[in-house]
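**Fold tokens**
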Amino acid sequence: MNSPIYVLGTGLSHNGSAVLLKDGRVCVGIEKERLSRIKHDGGNDNLAIQYCLDAEGIELKDISLVVQCANFEIPERNQYKGTRLFAEAKDLKIVDISHHLAHAYSAVGTCSFSECAVMVIDGCGSPLDQFLKLHPEQKQFISPEILNEVQMVCEKDSFYHFDGQKLTPLMKDFSVMAYKSDSLFSLPTTQHSIGGFYASVSHYVFGDMDDVGKLMGLAPFGKSGIFNFEAFEFRSGNLFINEDWKNQFANPSKGYEYFKSNFDYYANVAKWAQEQVEKAVLKCIHNRLEKFPHKNLCYTGGVALNAVANAKLQDSKIVENIYFEPAAADNGLALGCAFYGWLEYLNMQKVPHDGSTCFGKAYASNEIEKEIHKVENKKYNPVKFLDENELVKFCAEKLNQGKTIAWFQSGAEFGPRSLGRRSILAHPGIEGIKDHINLDIKFREDFRPFAPAVLKEKADKYFVQGRNSPYMILVDKTKPEYLEKLKNVTHRDGSARVQTVEESWNPKFVKLLTAFYTQSGIAVLLNTSLNKKGMPIVETPQEAIDLFEMTALDILVLENYVLEK
């Protein structure tokens, strides 16, 4: 029997990660922050790579190819912010690719399309000189103005065609870097990028860069039309930021208390910024598709995590089918590196992906028992359920009573969203639960919304569009007749960032939702990530127990073990 072909992808950006393909299929993948416990951690990739090797039970010598990607440099095989594992593997082939190419391959490797267009939009990609060193044959796709630019320029957005095997660039736009200065809005991204704009406004509003996605959660509290100027303009098919918008804002947040005391002002700024991003995304993608039409589109890069803009893009009907890559930010770079290695470098046939984004390793019963039987954990009197149906029935009853459950099952999700493997679950309609979870469990701002997880076949019962949204990356509107029953998962403007749950790769979560539907008459649960503010999503059973201990969670379910306060 032939030995399997392993391709390792590694991303060394912030939000670092590693992904291992076995004969063209993802067998394991992990983000570094889940292991180091440092939010958005990147740099040296040893932790993530070793996790993948251990999970698969192989060594570096078993790997056929490594493909890597970093932001502003080409990493040395032996050293990158510390000694690397590859230092001792002299014969291991290592290939480097550019930032946007890695983003693009992460999408085409996991999509269901045999052929498609691909759009990448983010804050900042590879510098031009690095890009040309890696891909000199692509110089023809770059405008003379960019090639002659004396300042540092980096990838801003890229548009490709995928033929089922390889990606061909159709349009690439670069932008001068906006170096950090004393300006309220200067950040280390490209000057004219949508992602850079969104990050700079988020910094203005919140005074930190912990989570730029908070801006999308704040926007529904604001009013449209308060600010009547535009941030973006299109010239000759390229997107530019009008610098004048920065002069309109001179009251940056000075901390959370200041933010709360000026809440309406910052909500209006967030609303304006969100609407600007939506218009810019639609304009940019429509422009590319008008030049190079295709019925299928993959969309990725950090900006593709904006669920509100994504829904408007889908509603615009510019294409028949859109795939939104769930790990669209830099955590997906390793995924793209691995698929580049398989499809482009090794020239192997694409293997259909099963739709799952859960690439972490599962923890065996003996590993879980070892943790829950530690002296400090025995106070919870753990119960083991031998029958899965009895377990989900028990959990459904508790959820229907208003209890909060930490739900830890199988291999963890890869990407920013908890989708029923590392989740906090609660009733979608009982009064006060949303505020309780924000205040006493997540320890985060009270304006931030929670998502509804719904049985896929019931989505159109509760939500206006009834979108298929398995990765919690699109918003919908809660139907008026269900606003009360779904008030904990419906945002201020009636929107909801829906997750449609599929049995094919989330069978236990489907069972729980079905049991809850039987108990409550509602096929929806509040679903949020198993962590607290500033903490990466938990990876191990012990981390789940620690979170259970430090928060007001009522119940912790570790596979078929239940701990209850």
